[in-house]
Amino acid sequence: MVHATGLMKHGSLPGCWGLEPKNTAVRSPESNGIAESFVKTIKRDYISIMPKPDGLTAAKNLAEAFEHYNEWHPHSALGYRSPREYLRQQASNGLSDNRCLEI
């Protein structure tokens, strides 16, 4: 897993998925590519089709977009499965702690 700093504040979440933290150098092209891909996906699949009549509605819709992305959107790193689908498969194979399914 590549991260800047924020994800580790959630404590056991990366460990829950069986991931090892990996820090990258500042201005790392690898990190930039991951971030750019995420932003492009959010803009293309969510923001471009959302109604945005006012700031409050836009913020609410953005929160819903992040929730959908983090739970249901297929991710290439997970073999084009959603995080929920991936965690369920890991749990059914005995490869994951069932507490992961509670997130």
UniProtKB/TrEMBL annotation:
Q: Which residues form the Integrase catalytic domain?
A: 18-83
What InterPro entries has UniProt attached to this entry?
A: Integrase_cat-core, RNaseH-like_sf, RNaseH_sf
Quote one Gene Ontology molecular function term.
nucleic acid binding
Q: Give any Pfam family that matches.
A: rve_3
Q: Which Gene3D superfamilies match?
A: Ribonuclease H-like superfamily/Ribonuclease H (3.30.420.10)
Q: Name one GO biological process term.
A: DNA integration
Check the UniProt entry and state the signal peptide residues, or none.
Answer: none
Q: What is this protein called?
A: Putative transposase subunit
